[in-house]
Design goal:
By secondary structure, the chain is α/β, with parallel strands linked by helices. The chain has 10 helices and 7 strands. It has a 7-stranded mixed beta sheet. Strand 1, helix 1 and strand 2 form a beta-alpha-beta unit. Helix 1 runs parallel beside helix 2 and helix 4 packs across helix 5. The longest helix has 27 residues. It is globular, with a radius of gyration of 18 Å. The protein starts with a strand and ends with a helix. The protein binds adenosine monophosphate and manganese (II) ion (3 copies). Adenosine monophosphate (AMP) binds next to helix 5 and helix 6.
C-alpha cells in the first residue's frame, strides 16, 4: 500500500486542484505523508495546512520545486521541510514568478505570430492566482481546439525545442541546492530520468556524472519511486541512490493535468522509511545550523 507521496502540485502553480481538494483526495486515498511541492511558490501551503487539520492521520511536509538550467536541458530540484518564513528564499521565489510572467507572455506572442490565436488574457485567467507556467498555455491551446491533450501542446509548440518556446531566468542545479540548504531544507533531485516518449523531458547527460557533481554540492536525496517509472527504472535509480548515499524519494507529481494516464496520488511513492530518513536528515541539518 502506498502511504507516502512527496511530489504534488496545486492551483498555486500548475496543478488543477486547490490545496483543499488535493489534501482531501490524498486523505481519501489513505496517504499518511504528503509534500506539496509547487513550482516557485509556497503560497498554497497555508491553505494546505488548514485543510490537513480535518485529517489527523495525514502529515504535510512543506516543499518547493525549483527548475534549474543545465546544458541541453533542465534539472528540477525539490526542497523538503522548507522554512517558509525565510525572506531570502521568498524574494528569490518572487523573482522567479515574475520571470514566469514575461516568459509566458512571450510564448503567447510567438504562438500568435505563428497564427495560433489564443489570448494572453485567457492564459492569465487560467493561471489564476498560480505561478504561471506552460501547462496553463497548454490548457488554453486545448480549449481553443489546437490540441487534444495538454501534453500535445508540448510536442507541437512549447516543448524545449518547440517553435514557441521561450527561456526564462533560472539557477544552476548547484545554486538551487545551495539556496535550499541555506534555508534549512533537504535538497532532492526530481525525476532524474524522463521517459523517452515525453519530448520535453530529456535525460540530462550522464546521471552518474551529474550525481557525482551534485552530491558534494549538498544533494541529499533523489526521486526513485516516481510517476510512471517502470520497475526497471525504479530498480536502476534505487541502486544509484544507494551508491551515492541519497535518500530515495518520489511521488506521483500529480497535477490533475487532464493528460491520459497521469499517475494519481496513492498509486506511486516511496516507503515510510524514506519519510523517517528525511526527518532524521532534517534534524541533522537543524543541529548543524544552530552550532
Ligand atoms: P514550466 O515550469 O513553465 O517550464 O513548465 C513545465 C511544466 O510543464 C512541468 O512542471 C510539467 O508540469 C509540465 N510538462 C513538462 N513537460 C511536459 C510534457 N511533455 N507533457 C505534459 N506536461 C509537461
Ligand atoms: Mn508542473
Ligand atoms: Mn518537475
Ligand atoms: Mn513537479
Amino acid at each position: 500500500m502506498i502511504e507516502v507521496d512527496l511530489h504534488l502540485h496545486t492551483t498555486f502553480s500548475d496543478g488543477r486542484l486547490t490545496p483543499t481538494q488535493l489534501v482531501d483526495l490524498c486523505a481519501e486515498r489513505r496517504l499518511k505523508v504528503i509534500c506539496i511541492s509547487d513550482h516557485d511558490t509556497t503560497e498554497g501551503l497555508a491553505e494546505t495546512f488548514e485543510a490537513a487539520k480535518k485529517h489527523p492521520g495525514l502529515t504535510v511536509i512543506p516543499g518547493i520545486e525549483l527548475s534549474t538550467d543545465v546544458e541541453g536541458g533542465e534539472i528540477h530540484v525539490l526542497g523538503y521541510f522548507l522554512d517558509l518564513e525565510d525572506p531570502v528564499i521568498q524574494s528569490m521565489l518572487a523573482k522567479f514568478r515574475e520571470g514566469r510572467e514575461g516568459r509566458a507572455e512571450g510564448m503567447v506572442r510567438k504562438l500568435n505570430e505563428m497564427g495560433v490565436s489564443i489570448r494572453w488574457e485567457r492564459v492569465r485567467e487560467i493561471a489564476g492566482e498560480g505561478a504561471i507556467g506552460r501547462p496553463h498555455i497548454a490548457q488554453a491551446l486545448v480549449e481553443a481546439g489546437y490540441c487534444e491533450f495538454p501534453k500535445d501542446a508540448f510536442d507541437k509548440y512549447i516543448g524545449r525545442n518547440g517553435p514557441a518556446y521561450v527561456e526564462r531566468m533560472k539557477l544552476t542545479p548547484a545554486e538551487a541546492i545551495r539556496v535550499l540548504a541555506d534555508n534549512g531544507a533537504i535538497p532532492v533531485m526530481a525525476h532524474p530520468t524522463y521517459s523517452a516518449s515525453k519530448s520535453d523531458r530529456d535525460e540530462v547527460g550522464s546521471l552518474r556524472e551529474t550525481l557525482a557533481a551534485l552530491k558534494p554540492a549538498g544533494l541529499l536525496g533523489m526521486e526513485v519511486y516516481y510517476g510512471d517509472y517502470t520497475p526497471e527504472q525504479v530498480a536502476y535509480l534505487k541502486a544509484l541512490a544507494d551508491e551515492f548515499d541519497l535518500i530515495p524519494c518520489g511521488g506521483s507529481d500529480y497535477h490533475a493535468s487532464g493528460n491520459p494516464g497521469e499517475p494519481e496520488p496513492g498509486t506511486v511513492g516511496p516507503p515510510m522509511s524514506t519519510y523517517e530518513a528525511l526527518v532524521a536528515a532534517k534534524k541533522e541539518v537543524d543541529a548543524l545550523r544552530v552550532r
